[in-house]
Amino acid sequence: MAFFRNVGVTLEMIKWEHSVFALPFALTGAMLAAHGLPSLVQILWIIVCMVSARSAAMAFNRWADASLDAENPRTAMRAIPAGHLSRGFVGGFTVLMAALFIFAASRLNHLTLLLSPVALAVVLAYSYAKRFTRWSHLVLGVALGIAPAAAWIAVRGSLDPRIVILTAAVMFWVAGFDLLYACQDAGHDRQAGLFSVPATYGVVAAFWIARIFHLVMIGLLILLAREFHLGVAAMIGIGAVVALLAYEHSIVSPRNLSRLNAAFFTMNGVISVVFFLFVAADLLMRR
User: DSSP letters along 25-85, please?
Assistant: First the structure.
């Protein structure tokens, strides 16, 4: 019974349901690579790769940040500092998910297997980035942004430079909303000697930089549509992303962060799903 309780606490700790953030962008990359639907086997292993890599990254983050989380009132009740899980259990879960990721990558093609340790290094490195650079938000962006390029490789067995446009778009999207999310810890980060844009430049500046990042994302999505000759449905999807981002920024402000969780978790999940659905519809209608 203790094992199953630990598994339940672990799933809550890593917020596995938030895999929806990057998964739709990975599936977008896979569909662009296949000019439509990849095989069901490819889709299955891409999903396993995405969920296992993200689970490993989140668990490793909680393991690496356990002492920092204990000192922060907002995070003190997370699983390790609250005593619900041991560091050993979380470390073991991280290794298990990393192994599952590498196995899933091996089921796709030789290049995905060769690159799987590199991908793991990228997604795990974020946990230490805020100890060294105020631009750790961009490191997180890269960690999620490699998803569409990785999915392209999973389908094609090679990399097309055009898909890097989507990687860059996801990077700026993630970095933008992570900037907003980090605003609630600006004071603690300064005291703890951690680096972030809000802690370094202030919350107001962080909001402006987040807006710029999201404008860059929109520009990159338009460029992506042009490079892949996407049609009206995809452009409608990009328009929907613009509207959703505008709404996301409208419900939070430097003076009011009370709806930050709604902006961070709910809206960003909707944005990624909506974009994928419109691009998928565009690709399938042209077959």
Answer: HHHHHHHHHHTS---HHHHHHHHHHHHHHHHHHHHHHHHHTHHHHHHSTTTTTSTTTTTSS
